[in-house]
Amino acid sequence: MTFEMRPSQPLDPAYSGNVFIAAQPDYESAQAVIYGMPMDWTVSFRSGSRLGPARIREVSVGLEEYSPYLDRDLSDIRYFDAGDLPLPFGNPKESVDRIYQYTTGLFAQGKFPLGLGGEHLVSWGAIRAAWEKHPDLRVIHIDAHTDLREHYEGEPYSHATVIRKVCDGIGPERVYQFGIRSGTREEFAWAKQNTRFFPFDLAEPLSGVLEELKGYPVYVTFDIDAMDPAYAPGTGTAEHGGLTPKEVFKAFQLMSALNVVGFDLVEVAPQIDPTEQTQILAAKFVREALLAFVR
Questions:
Q1: For the chain, how many structural domains are there in total?
Q2: Taking burial as the number of CB atoms within 10 A of a residue's CB, which of 53, 108, 153, 194 is the most buried?
Q3: In what order do the strands lie in the sheet with 196-198?
Q4: Domain region containing 79
Q5: Is the pTM of this model over 0.90?
Q6: Whether 147 contacts 226, CB under 8 Å
């Protein structure tokens, strides 16, 4: 049987209506659609990111709707929260295919897709749909890890291989990597030779490539482990020496000048962080993404 999802309906039949703050109930007039990708089938250290989308929504109620960084308010835009995709437990390829199918529908209807993960492999489905819609796509990858392996312990569908899949698809010269501070020696060498590679930092190197990105459609994929664990400990593979929230808020200001056509935020594992720092910060980044990218 062919699996089908209608973008205009809540994704989970049991969906109870817990939505991201200020989401509107009308899909048809929405400029953007928030959807969850609750998958952590290939996580190699600490699992639990499948719980991230729901908890990000829940803690968003504590946010102000106004962003002083962007001088915009959530009331300025219209977005619908569709709930979480029903993904087949333990089947990463089928899960990614379902994400691709769903986001293809969003792009076809002129909606801005904003995905909540989930492990980072989920991003490949949405990026593939964005590339199909926009053949000259560029990708901004913000992460602690290179994610450039061809396989991880023999498995080609892994959160450690997602950006290599993107590179093999759209071409590595179209992939801009920021904040990277972890990976194999071979991955770092490959990135230096092939991608637009800016390890360790975000705002300063991003400001240096804005002009070359302008005029192109851009997809932004943000792994919460790009943050230093002091700010976001609730993630599967935390890496010290990371970004600060202040630098990321500056990056959203910079990226607001680009033609961003899709965004996802992944790898929040709420059960690891009982303080809720990670979840609250992730929700604030989602607010900034909505206000920076949805016109």
A1: 1
A2: 53
A3: 79-84, 32-37, 112-117, 259-266, 217-223, 138-142, 175-178, 196-198
A4: 32-293
A5: yes
A6: no
